[in-house]
Amino acid sequence: MNIKTYTESNREAWNEVNPIHQKHNPIQLSEAFQAKGYSTLDEHITRTFLRLGLQGRNVAQLCCNNGREVLSLVNLGAQSGTGFDISDHAIEEAKGLATTSGLPCTFVRMDVYDIDSVHSNQYDLIYISIGALTWLPDLNKFFKIASTLLKKGGLLVIYEMHPMLNMLAMEDEPEFEDPMKIAFSYFKSEPWINNIGIDYVGNTTYESATNYSFSHTLASIFNAVIKSGIHITEYEEHNHDISCIFTHLEKEAKLPMSYTMIGKKA
């Protein structure tokens, strides 16, 4: 199956779920972002961005969903923000939030694999956050595009779920026996295929459009970033969960649950 078949199926699934997320979101973002300095970013990544410096930077987020993190980065001091996402509905929500907040943010409905040269060398920082990489069938192509978007010396910041968690089954899966028992191969190469919805906000299930997600090893992520011409300067693993799936395992403190990777374009 080619990349476009995967991504267009996922586009349909994200268009289905975004109205469900809006319904279940406990925060009215259109009101929240009218407050100066409001941010949806957690304490760890906020400290990271403030340490790296946002002032005067043009930032972009690939797979930005409804734009809340792009808006947060600008509220924290970035000069401007641009978000790219495949979901028509999510981008419409993001545009609405930008309008009501008055923040200098632009949102583009686009498959990240189709981002063209008009955006090349435009950004000082690119952010990739939780849940982005799993939807991407080809990391080498993705990070090559991300690299072209960065100015020379620009920063790549990734804050994602640790790939080791892909080995664990969730309670509603037939492979589940124990929360800590390995159920799937770390080296799983075929995609996960889902038809019961992707509502991680309300945790509802429904008959959804077929969507495809992918397991990526740390080696595949590291190598794709390196091959893109981005030099990895920092890597840190964390024992806190940012996936909203495995929070119940935080108390075990036995697994890396998330990570931060920072790179700089040569």
TrEMBL record:
Keyword Transferase: yes
InterPro entries linked: Methyltransf_25 (IPR041698), SAM-dependent_MTases_sf (IPR029063)
Signal peptide from the UniProt entry: none
Name of the protein: Methyltransferase domain-containing protein
Record-linked Pfam families: Methyltransf_25
Keywords: Transferase
Domain Methyltransferase: 59-154
Cross-referenced CDD domains: AdoMet_MTases
